Structures
1.
Amino acid sequence: MKRTTFPGELLVSLRRGEGQSLREQLEGELRTAIQRGRLTCGAALPSSRALAADLGVSRGVVVLAYDQLLAEGYLVASRGSATRVASRPPARPAIGVTDEPAAGPRYDFRPGLPDTSIFPRRAWLSSLRRVLAVPDVETALGYPDPQGARPARLAIAAYLNRTRGTVARAERTVLCTGFAQGLRLVCDVLRQRGVTRVAVEDPGHGGQRADIAAMGLRVSSVPVDDSGLRVDRLTRLNVGAVLVTPAHQFPTGVVMAPRRRQALLEWASRHDAIVIEDDYDAEFRFDREPVGTLQGLAEDHVAYIGSTSKTLAPALRIGWLLMPRRLVDRTALAKLHADHGSPTLDQLTLAEFITSGGLDRHLRKARLLYRRRRDAMVAALQSHLPASKVRGVAAGLHLMVALPAGTDEDAVLAAAEQRSMRIYGVGPHRARDAGAALLLGYASLPEADIRAGVALLASCLADKAPGTKPRPIALTRIWDPAERRLLAGIAAEASIGGERQRR
Amino acid sequence: MKRTTFPGELLVSLRRGEGQSLREQLEGELRTAIQRGRLTCGAALPSSRALAADLGVSRGVVVLAYDQLLAEGYLVASRGSATRVASRPPARPAIGVTDEPAAGPRYDFRPGLPDTSIFPRRAWLSSLRRVLAVPDVETALGYPDPQGARPARLAIAAYLNRTRGTVARAERTVLCTGFAQGLRLVCDVLRQRGVTRVAVEDPGHGGQRADIAAMGLRVSSVPVDDSGLRVDRLTRLNVGAVLVTPAHQFPTGVVMAPRRRQALLEWASRHDAIVIEDDYDAEFRFDREPVGTLQGLAEDHVAYIGSTSKTLAPALRIGWLLMPRRLVDRTALAKLHADHGSPTLDQLTLAEFITSGGLDRHLRKARLLYRRRRDAMVAALQSHLPASKVRGVAAGLHLMVALPAGTDEDAVLAAAEQRSMRIYGVGPHRARDAGAALLLGYASLPEADIRAGVALLASCLADKAPGTKPRPIALTRIWDPAERRLLAGIAAEASIGGERQRR
């Protein structure tokens, strides 16, 4: 049975015997009518007696519904006058309206992106199944240990000791969501310990420079040559820490030479400083053996950061820090304050995945695949851009191509974007201008796409007048497309005048 | 076949035909010998020729092994002198050494903790299976959308609109790891917009006061009475935002009265201020209907924060923000900077879990269970502490018990801890002293434990001379046991003298 009423502009339909009580239905109908604007602000509602008669329900049903909506603030009532719709009109929900983000470019040469199509879905799912089958998993589902679930710290520490030559221990390991958060936690701890300035490599990751600065620390650039960081320059700087990529310098691909490693650790020991070791893609070496970590040589002076973003998938957001003993508790506390700890089930799934051999199997497969793609990229560059100087081919997930002197890097990037190809320049990663260069990630692209993309790239470089609008200069310093999109949105809104100074 | 040599103190065993090459074995043996201290700093190694002869291998094997260890920094070489062990002795790995955390208390009455033993493991696993079966899931495994995966934002927005009376939209939803991070993101954005001071409820969550202060904002306390926040007090304060728990005030359990809601939103509109709405346990109402959200009434002035920590499990670390349009991009940017976005697979699993009806089913089950436990808690208090004043029983996962005037809250907590029972006081959540009270969470404890725990509690309160050492006063302001443990560790280390001022 269905009953409809029409008091003024108010349409209410009640259905009997269909699960929801009449009161719930009435409440829902009124709430929706207010949300959708069918009942406008300030509109008077019928008295409960009148509406009840109209709907053929008991007056109590209407009184309870009104009370609930009064409690929710949709209605207001004053003694002696009618119940009215509140004066703040709630906006209309827009769920289901499509606002899909624009489609990405046809070819994206983002450096450091692994091929997520080989993500071991079945093995990962099996690992979670085994974790959830542990009888007392419920104890792991409460508030997380801010340092990370201990079984995961054990598994990760053992994995790193075996494959990366670290001297990791579970009790000095802190889990986080990836390099970005790891660096922020280290900076937080360093600042608490009185550090005011951190040295970085030049060229070095531009996003990381910005992250360090955002944490309230000053940044000093130290040049990189073919042996890695110029450690001799460090001694002239008054810095309490230095961020390095010794296994595979970002973006040049250089391996830090043994003497430099030794000198760097001696510097750290002499100055009681911290070396922040970014071991971002060390699992991928194609033409030589893996290089061990600094952490394995000087665990009390190295804050080591790694993640699964290159080995498995960035979307997992699992990373780890190996910290000197005196900084472990502070790091865990900083993690607690940042987000109360990372998702425990993900950590335990990774632990199971590692100890069951899943990660080793996946990496063997990935190494073969990426090596073939690296070869395809090098061959395509030799074929289409035979004069180009290519660096950093021995390892990692990207290589670097120096552009001819005088090339406008941003114009090349913009021209590529017009051909539905996203490439990345070294510009955002340089503190001092030292010539244009491209960073080309190859791990996530099929060989055919690599060949087609490099051919397109050659046509962009050949095009002397690409006729593209250069982007605002500030945005060219941002390498991350998501960050660039958000900053552009904020800038657009500010220019519309949506901004106002606030207390 | 096994071959062993003993040059000086160096023991190297090589096995032929067992998978690893001789070079890899030699490298591993040397590396381990250095890590374990069997080869000491500065020790000279045999020449490659001598060691090769000794081991019965070709010289090239030894040269390659030495080269690798030189590259890793374990060895140093100078022209014309012997290869030596580097002067920085790497510490010995301690993996596998047990340092299990101390066992928790027998009864833990932590407020706000759901029963994780009813976590829907099978349904959650099925949801992940369905997510991983989507053919193009690989596109979701790259770097996350910092705002959160769109399908998850859609599902969460629809869920909130249906159950919480919000007017959520996917494009204004930002996913995060829970309330703690959500609040930090909002504070970050507010500070960028010039806000310097935020009002909080008194009593109100102590951890949140600290979080706001840690974000560089000042905190003003506004008293709470039986109708919720004293909105009239707000107008005297120069604040740009206020944090409230309107559906179920923490810790008192009061529901904000309709007039106060209206007044609060009018204040926000008049001052262009932001109301931060903490909707932390609104799904659990036992004796009355759910109360709608402020966000549903004024989406442009409310920053709404919710999570799965109470509905499913804190370990999931999934939360969400519903933001006014003008703050969405900034919030997503703050999220990008904090951690590059939350784990995508978890978000998509939750979306699948919600849309398949799993969350509704779980909540129906949980509500029944928690209601029984609430009843058991109330009955036990009436039986064992008949004079106690109990508040906040109509909803949520905890209730509040006022202690007799003059009771030393910390002493009661310490006495309980000695009886292997962890209880929580209102002290850390009060800005002004207003009498001792306990917060007793009941959702995670079986009814028998609730009865036994309350009986124990009665004995603690009856014990006039508990004879316990009170904790340092600063730590009694910290309610989170994990945070308290870390702070105590840091303080202990500092007193040992491990601290030094750094640049």
2.
Amino acid sequence: MNQLDSSPRAPYAGTNHPAHTGLGKSPLLHAAASLPSFEQQLQEFIRQPSVSSDPACRRDLRGCARWLASHLREIGIASTKVVETGGHPAVVGRIDVDPRRPTLLIYGHYDVQPVKPESEWRYPPFSGRIADGYIFGRGAADDKGQLFAHVKALESWIKTKGSPPCNVRILFEGEEEIGSPHLRDLLSKRRSDFVADGAVVSDTQMRGPGQPALTVGLRGKLAFDLILEGPRKDLHSGSFGGAIRNPLEALCELVTGFYNADGSLAIEGIYDDVAIRSSSSRRRLLLMAPSARELYEAAGVASGWGENGYSAYERVSTRPSLSVNGITGGHQGPGTKAIIPSRAVARLSFRLVPNQDPSRVADLLRRHIASRVPLDRGGQYPAFSATGLRCQIKFRESARPVKLDSNSPVISSAAEALRQTFKREPALLPSGGSIPIVETLQSMFGLQTALMGFALPTDGLHAPNEHFELKRFALAIEASIRMMDLFSKGGKRW
Amino acid sequence: MNQLDSSPRAPYAGTNHPAHTGLGKSPLLHAAASLPSFEQQLQEFIRQPSVSSDPACRRDLRGCARWLASHLREIGIASTKVVETGGHPAVVGRIDVDPRRPTLLIYGHYDVQPVKPESEWRYPPFSGRIADGYIFGRGAADDKGQLFAHVKALESWIKTKGSPPCNVRILFEGEEEIGSPHLRDLLSKRRSDFVADGAVVSDTQMRGPGQPALTVGLRGKLAFDLILEGPRKDLHSGSFGGAIRNPLEALCELVTGFYNADGSLAIEGIYDDVAIRSSSSRRRLLLMAPSARELYEAAGVASGWGENGYSAYERVSTRPSLSVNGITGGHQGPGTKAIIPSRAVARLSFRLVPNQDPSRVADLLRRHIASRVPLDRGGQYPAFSATGLRCQIKFRESARPVKLDSNSPVISSAAEALRQTFKREPALLPSGGSIPIVETLQSMFGLQTALMGFALPTDGLHAPNEHFELKRFALAIEASIRMMDLFSKGGKRW
């Protein structure tokens, strides 16, 4: 039996429990009864191809923002607006209940990752197909499904109580998957729209099926392209193979040089700023975190590989990493083509941990590469270097790593909401991903963020066949409803 | 004044010169007068998009073969047929003049390389656009323009003398750029169509502008794809980066492991069978061959790179090489995508020199790779190896290296024809490229081949903006006319 269902037979009678705090009709019961229509609305949301990194989707992003804003107005959040950012617009809204109550900022992102390779999708990536208790589609879990759970929680409060129990600020952005380039600017320009006492973001993962988790740390990020240029045009590899530096071969050598034999990073100084964790905190992490086997199973590999002396989970959460996300160069089509390509491009991204600074890491990277191949820095180097190659580093998005305070009201409210919803102690874990907003809220507003995630590593985030379990969608709505209630009471009512 | 122009004031009166061997009307004058229409016909030939490696061009290849065959019939070679091979068809024809005269086999290929990236072409790649004395288009030089020079030489003989001075066998294939997979089969099935005393192939390069060359050696070839598979699907690099083997990173490491620091090959045993050249032959090559500077200029790079202890030209002709022709893996589209890709593919090709054997090199490669990453050989290995990776080598075309006899009648006829046409001593050079037919003719028929090339390294072979100089087209026709005459007289009439 749910705690917010106003049942006269509530099992928590006599406790501080929200079931006894005077709610009339039950937001939880409303949510449970409305699930079929909530799911249909989520389908509609997923059907908007809001791939923020794809210039061809620019209008679809805008369309998706408009759809979301109008949906929020429909459920009763009249103030909702589509707000220009200079890039893809954001959706901003607010509900003022009582200035004496705490204010919760709900953040989510309506933009999604690209879908390629489309051929590997069982259902069209923007179909929102429901099958076997799951909803399929790009964004189903990351982050449309999770964002929408908070929307439906708000709706359940509004429809049953007239309003949520706390003041609410809404910020749904459209550029998270491209590093939130305009977010800081938006937050500082519209500061008053986002003043709050705590933030909740559902864009992370659970500890495992049925095992809730709160993310209390995030890795930072530094993405960059490495571009190597050699001959002015592709050359015949028969006529020139053996005497000309091949940009693809040089790129492979550069990439290989980033790593030591165990997979740790060979860039000088890269570990200098990495926070040393106490052996007790490492032990705690080992107990709470997924085991290596769980991690590899989620990845679909039989075994792992990485920095010596650290557990698999540490390697993806408290240790920095550098991943090659893509390489393109030379012949790509069918058959063979005997060429030395004129150019090769690798796309890479660091994941950074406290207390690494993206700009310092960029410097270390520059230095590392410059010692191997002359860098092209604003014409400082000749068009072709001594080895006949030219190298360019193009930095893309970056984010600082984050460490959160698990005792803060918003995080403890979220922890309790998860406890009540899943009947299980949530795991408090650092995560390997990066969510720029969290660091921004912390550094700009001093806000703590409850990273209350409902995705599973098997949901296909950033991969083909992304999906979200409808049961988890329902639980996420339930947890959000509870969390708002707990947070409204100061976050420490139990 | 040309030697075959029947002029009463021929300057070679009293010599053995062909001008005095009874030619009536002059093939050379006919050719000179017909150049404008010859060029138009070459345009038509180039306009057929005969990309043999592209399955989408299958019908275009057939169309191109039909066009060529009907053109040969039009100029008087009635026997010409389009012959099925199991792949793209060949064009086969013959002219029997007199069984006591020598028979010349003319080989060329009407198929061409792919055109990507099309955006880099000044004119559409299949336009055959004529501008500034050049004809532009894929195949302009490799090999349609050069093949067509022999066709026009035959036409000039037929139109003026009724027939060429020697018996002729014609073989124009449509699969050279994909390694001539059906050529051996065609030659052995139709052996009698190709019995000859010598072969001429114009699919090589000149020593430089105005400097004729005969290629007296060819590197062999062994092309292969290297496929590395890791996780079953792309993974989020935040969630897994640092703990999972990334196939792209492993691919880079494998590729890097193929080379020593100087660019020489690090594959054990790879140099075992490489013929050691005498210091006198190395000196001769150094004198005749393009200098490093010339080579780098042709490549469009300021400097080179390669095996220590060898000249730039040796590195591309008498030493083996291994080129990465292309790499694809992970994110390819616009923007960033934070993934660990599930798979990475590299396309590579060896160039081999006497006395390397492609199948032995394949063994050495297999052994080299198997010592680094478990190979997937018919299920012999588990789906995922200890490092979480699976590796596959897919061998593609191969060709043995060739060394030719420069004293053979057909090569000395070609040398003299070049001397007369260009008024300059031809350079006799080994080349870095691979032309499978040459080794096949040598091993199957004991035939020597005159590799009388008219392309220049700057013609953009296998690259965007391929072109052929119309003046060189005319000189190629002239040289072919002379060569047939010289060869008909035993190849040693001067």
3.
Amino acid sequence: MRPPVTSRAELERVALELFEAHGFVETTVDDIAQEAGISRRTFFRYYPSKNDVVWGEFDRLLGDLEARLDAATDDGPLLTTLRDAVVGFNSLPPEAVAAHRQRMSLILYVPALQAHSTLRYSRWREVVVRYAARRLGQPPEVMGPQLVGNVALAAALTAYGQWLAAPGSELPALLRAAFDAIDLTLPPHRPR
Amino acid sequence: MRPPVTSRAELERVALELFEAHGFVETTVDDIAQEAGISRRTFFRYYPSKNDVVWGEFDRLLGDLEARLDAATDDGPLLTTLRDAVVGFNSLPPEAVAAHRQRMSLILYVPALQAHSTLRYSRWREVVVRYAARRLGQPPEVMGPQLVGNVALAAALTAYGQWLAAPGSELPALLRAAFDAIDLTLPPHRPR
């Protein structure tokens, strides 16, 4: 028996260990609460659902990404600024890398998490689209900013896939390679 | 009362009408079967689930896309070949455009369909990745082909979004614009 967990981060660590050992679908909230030495009710004070544990601090991190983009100077190419912000968003201290691999592998490959992931991807993309709209001086809903959002997500997901497939590889280098392979020449916006 | 439907395509038309009128979630298989004048059992002979009706002939069309790419000459830039194949895949006779709009709007915007859509997107992407791998002379799982697959899906989804947002707009032109805005300089593959 370990002492009861007393933080969101600890609860997350316990849950990820159980998902790794027994599978995400097979692990129940009761299993997690029991292993963490807390009640089911306490679990739900930390996280609204089992899915949300996998995403951990995503909301706070998304705020960080937005702050990075708000603070960025506008001199470099748009995709370079985005690349650097996304690399920063994904730079982790060495001791956090193993858990991030575990988390991302669940997010990308567990079918039961796909629907939930789609919603989170949308929120990530919206942050990128807002930045692109500001940089391009276009409304967020038109093709230019939307294409930037979708293509940036494509680059990030490609880098994640490569990272998960190659133990020991470095996520920041893969993100840089994916973004640097892409050059966008966006259509001007012609209001109707 | 209309006469009982006698083809997959007719059943699909009836179902799409009901989804449009009452909502996708609100419409049951029984509702569709009743409106189509067939039994529930007959419905399931045409389609394994309500979700699958939305995707219609996707599997057959995906085979067409693959055949187009297999038949393509390799002289133009990779993304140009892909663009032309995807435009061909999405070129519809005028009388089919309204139903395609309805279908794509369900696929892109109904949350209940998101998980299912993710699986179909993967299959579409796999076709593109196989072509890119062949063109690049690289294994399909490495960064170059994977990036092509993800970026092509990003371009297609962007074009679909713009098309759905603007009644009367032309999907082929939007697909061309999205693909033409992207230039890829793919990293060479260095086997380890």
4.
Amino acid sequence: MAELVRLPASAHAELLELLGPEGLVTDAQVVASHLVDWTGRFRGTGPAVLRPRDTAEVAGVVAVCRRHGVAVVPQGGNTGLVGGSVPHEGEVVLSLRRLAAIEPVAERSRQITVGAGAVLAVVQAATRRHALDVPVDLGARDSATVGGMVATNAGGLQVLRHGSMRRHLKGIEAVLGDGSTISHLGGLDKDNTGYDLAGLLCGSEGTLGVITAVRLGLVSRPSHRVTALVAFASAAGAVDAVATWRRSLPDLEAAELFTGDGVGLVCRTGGARDPFERRHPWYVLVDVAGPHDPSDDLAAAVSSIDDVLDVAVATDEPRRAALWALREEHTPAINTLGAPHKLDVTLPLDALAAFLVDVPRTVAEAAPAATTWLFGHVGDGNVHVNVVGVAPDDERVDEAVLRHVADLGGSISAEHGIGVAKRRWLHLNRSEAELHAFRAIRSALDPDHILNPAVLV
Amino acid sequence: MAELVRLPASAHAELLELLGPEGLVTDAQVVASHLVDWTGRFRGTGPAVLRPRDTAEVAGVVAVCRRHGVAVVPQGGNTGLVGGSVPHEGEVVLSLRRLAAIEPVAERSRQITVGAGAVLAVVQAATRRHALDVPVDLGARDSATVGGMVATNAGGLQVLRHGSMRRHLKGIEAVLGDGSTISHLGGLDKDNTGYDLAGLLCGSEGTLGVITAVRLGLVSRPSHRVTALVAFASAAGAVDAVATWRRSLPDLEAAELFTGDGVGLVCRTGGARDPFERRHPWYVLVDVAGPHDPSDDLAAAVSSIDDVLDVAVATDEPRRAALWALREEHTPAINTLGAPHKLDVTLPLDALAAFLVDVPRTVAEAAPAATTWLFGHVGDGNVHVNVVGVAPDDERVDEAVLRHVADLGGSISAEHGIGVAKRRWLHLNRSEAELHAFRAIRSALDPDHILNPAVLV
């Protein structure tokens, strides 16, 4: 429906002069591809895609749009899951994809400066040549941009060890909603000179400023890595084991939970093969990685747990990949059943096991025909509740699950953010005083409310 | 001169009713002890010390003070070094010391909730019973409060490994300047539900809200620890060695730099003994700590560096303490020479060695009679430039050193904050756009500007 929305002629002329024809895209077909998220759930309307080349052009775009009252949706790789990077009410899309410069790795400080539009996998390739790595990795690595990962405080597969994007953010450049450009990319490990603007922009989902470049801390790429798939009879056994391993295995890098039903599904769709002779109720996939061979430590840690039903260990890359496929193929396998409602939540660790057992019942009560698929980052308490068999706009399941989470003291968004998808439930986690503080901060940095107006608060 | 400043009678009456006589201290002698920082450099005036018992009383204090236009300086252990916790222009002191509750350690999530007034050493004792530790440690541990450490994003001795306070802040409770109370202490490792208010309050130096309680992540207390004192001929050799060790020693926990002159001073004042037969120009003290004995890794790492002149290793606690005394006795030893100007700065690692060599010249040009003492957290690029022999209010040395730092791309405050001491130089690190954003955020959360008005911007 791109053709139904138009830019004011004067704004169009100014943007064309600023960005040139390559930077102002109004071709309906191209624009349409930017109006929908990759899951197909969130589809909006918008008159144009703006493709600035550099920070100065981004600042120019924000200035023009402020002057004409045109709202803006910043967009990176558009791999988000909460509808935060597509327009909803006729906003223009501001694509950061052309700001993809990657500076040389700073060896001594172990940092790198990259443009917001740099794709994660490309940055990973650049850093790995120096035996260093971006500390955050996620399945969408071939599309997700670093700017988008910062804007959403992305988590992913190694949060257990390294934390989310905010922890590694050593500097930021952004055009704030008030039109000003801030640039603080010096990359100092310690710098207590005022408020943490970088940390505030991180996770703000494009509502405070348009991130144009970031300085990231890197981590050493471990020379040894072992993967193990461990089977359990109960969710409680799995959760308790991971809590124990977090203490006994300092080099524990990932601990991913999934179910026997999930393994059955990914094996049926051909995405992976079950290494065990029989199916078990619960699985935990662990990665342990460090400067020494962690095999002995891992074996001792696994054998210290009475509840373990079975274990498969992989030390070489092909067999590690085969085990990881059991986890990573969950998303495509579930998609073959229909477009899922993806509910990304955190539970307090003390409530996690009971939630894993109870949540399918919560879903069934709200939608008897739906099926529930559970997987997630069990060491962080982070569960991805995937529900299939519910209409895209039927939010009864979402409501029931998120209330269940909040009642247990959990978070309704672990790592995906609020976007538009969870905006109506934000009050489950945040008090009126907090929401008021959010609005006050937003008005302070984006006084005309032109940045991602449909998102967050 | 506390007796020269008075609270408005109506405010006094309301505060007395709210806090009772124990919570509203106007005795001139007691008040006076809260009006000066521990170095004696910053001394202000103020009519009273308020000592609320809980968060509700803090909220009441902020409400009364807003109504009467009385400005407030939050104060924890008053161990800061930039004059940020003493009043300057007649503000009341809001002491958080009575909010010292310490909740039980949450074993599974490895977290703890403590009141803002809890003293670091007391929290350390509580967590160490569970083989867990607060990830930030500093020399002022017997006085510094956790609330103050969060308000200033304290760093200290283990930042190299664990980062500063902000990284470990899993939740916060605070009374904002607008009078509202926010409380988000659930302690979830992943929680992307809106702006990072906790991270924003962390390092805001009491200007946005009064922190009343925090939820902290803890780390495993390593079972093995080795300390080594390593001597170098040049600053460049020391800096390069630490950069190498940061990569080759994943369990490197601290890397502290000091000079031969500094060792001479601490040995003369009786604070420590030199383990070597001859004095060397530069020293690095390293701690390596982990789940396995790191002695072999450390020996290999040290012997891989050609520039090492001498090395002393300590594996037991008394000998480790003897080596650490060489570093920790710097502060008292320097104080015997007079009240130093303490300039806490970060240099980019590539500029650090040259700065260490050049900065005494910068000081000498500004104040020929002054002496310069250098020590710091070399792995982070953090140097404490101590200058003795300059009058407390003579800021020419401060100006010269901070300009030198900024010219090299460094930070004028690594871990102490801005306070009042560095406010006039904040522009060296922060652009007008950033300062404008700081002011906008401050006005958003403290619209009447009653919180620590003399501090930061």
